[in-house]
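Translate structure to sequence.
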């Protein structure tokens, strides 16, 4: 058995030094933990204004931020950049509706005239992984007054600039010195130090150079997160588990060919985890001010009165782990802006013209499919219906369209004529398959109900019956 030397009961100099050292490290550990906790609480108490052009990297950053805390976001404002301002708004709303977050204000910000970047089509269409178009939410174009009101309020605002700085320029132009009211403006860039000269570079900064110069000179507290290009992003995306809206979307965009290859990096994503305090960041001891622009970059000069600080991520592996954890955590639904639902019978009658039993059955089949496949309906799901084309049984087809949102106009429903009982198979983009087949005895039940109380009576009674008494359900 290993024996350790015993400390003398009478403490000498060596023992005192030992205890002092232990106490020092314990205190330092406690203080560090407390500081980390306080830092995170400070981050959560800040309201973020997220300024984004909703390129592919922006979408991934927004997904991480939503997973972290939806309540820390004061508002979103889109800007012309990789995607157009309008398409950026559509893509943002599509994401928010896909995760049932419906109470964060959305604004369409500045638009720029001139040539679009070569990857505009890729950004607008999210590299083939588009979200459904807006259904309930909408974006406001009158953004300046609301965004300025949030900045001038008593709440501390962190401005997360993930796109070009055109919106910040407009704010400063209409409300001089407003940006100095922000707790900080966070933005990503590559930082280069050569021969005593510090230069920051990024496409976002150079896309609207005049806006960038105005913002850098505004006196606002600006934190430039130094992001180096890293070739492991695709490997990171492919290693994600296929379990959440975020990971499924990220893996799909990463697997789709992008001929421009412009979005396979982690600029905005790493800036976001740095801004929310979820990874270790070291702020430069020096402060900087903007001096001049040069081709492809903006020159900074060190000065004690400078308004710009450089932030470096001290542990890249930890930051990536944090991003993966956020993406693999489901985004919690948040909001209460859903309208009061129309009574089901009224809804069906408004679409179909009357409450017949077969349109009710189709509606119930569609709703059951959405529940079984965890689909929002309308988009990302197809229906293949087998039914006669003669009423009243063909009314089943109308019901399927209404219940599932699969419609002829969107070309996500097909109909095969058959003489048997109606049935339908649903398929989602995520690979789920769900089949609903009317039980063979249901037509005779319908006939009996019609004989008792008429067609609408039969429809109402069918609507009240348990699903498993009417259908054979199969995944």
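Result:
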């Amino acid at each position: 058995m290993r024996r350790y030397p015993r400390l003398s009961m009478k403490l000498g100099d060596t023992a005192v030094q030992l205890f002092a050292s232990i106490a020092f490290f314990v205190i330092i550990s406690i203080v560090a933990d407390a500081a980390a906790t306080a830092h995170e609480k400070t981050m959560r108490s800040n309201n973020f204004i997220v300024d984004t052009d909703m390129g592919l990297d922006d979408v991934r950053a927004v997904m991480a931020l939503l997973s972290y805390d939806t309540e820390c976001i004061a508002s979103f404002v889109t800007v012309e950049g990789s995607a157009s301002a309008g398409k950026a708004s559509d893509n943002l709303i599509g994401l928010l509706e896909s995760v049932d977050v419906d109470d964060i204000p959305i604004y369409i910000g500045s638009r720029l005239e001139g040539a679009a970047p070569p990857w505009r089509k890729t950004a607008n269409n999210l590299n083939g992984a588009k979200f459904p178009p807006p259904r309930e939410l909408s974006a406001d174009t009158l953004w300046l007054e609301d965004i300025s009101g949030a900045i001038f309020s008593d709440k501390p605002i962190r401005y997360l600039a993930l796109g070009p700085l055109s919106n910040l320029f407009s704010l400063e132009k209409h409300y001089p010195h407003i940006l100095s009211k922000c707790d900080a403006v966070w933005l990503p860039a590559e930082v280069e130090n050569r021969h005593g000269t510090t230069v920051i570079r990024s496409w976002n900064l150079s896309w609207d150079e005049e806006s960038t110069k105005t913002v850098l000179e505004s006196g606002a507290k600006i934190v430039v997160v130094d992001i180096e290009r890293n070739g492991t992003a695709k490997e990171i995306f492919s290693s994600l588990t296929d379990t959440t809206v975020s990971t499924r979307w990220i893996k799909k965009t990463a697997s789709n060919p992008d001929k421009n290859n412009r979005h396979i990096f982690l600029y905005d994503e790493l800036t976001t985890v740095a801004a929310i305090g979820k990874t270790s960041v070291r702020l430069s001891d020096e402060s900087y001010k903007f001096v001049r622009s040069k081709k492809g970059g903006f020159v900074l000069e060190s000065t004690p009165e400078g308004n710009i600080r450089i932030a470096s991520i001290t542990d890249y592996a930890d930051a990536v782990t944090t991003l993966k954890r956020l993406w693999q955590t489901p985004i919690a639904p948040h909001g209460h802006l859903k309208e009061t639902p129309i009574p089901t019978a009224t809804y069906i009658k408004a679409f179909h013209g009357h409450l017949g039993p077969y349109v009710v059955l189709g509606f119930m089949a569609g709703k059951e499919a959405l529940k079984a496949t965890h689909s929002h309906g309308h988009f990302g799901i197809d229906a293949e219906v087998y039914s006669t084309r003669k009423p009243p049984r063909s009314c089943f087809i109308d019901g399927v369209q209404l219940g599932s949102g699969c419609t002829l106009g969107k070309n996500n429903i097909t109909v095969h004529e058959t003489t048997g009982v109606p049935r339908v198979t649903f398929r989602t983009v995520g690979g789920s398959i769900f089949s609903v087949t009317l039980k063979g005895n249901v037509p005779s039940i319908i006939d009996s109900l019609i004989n008792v109380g008429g067609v609408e009576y039969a429809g109402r009674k069918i609507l009240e019956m348990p699903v498993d008494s009417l259908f054979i359900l199969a995944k």
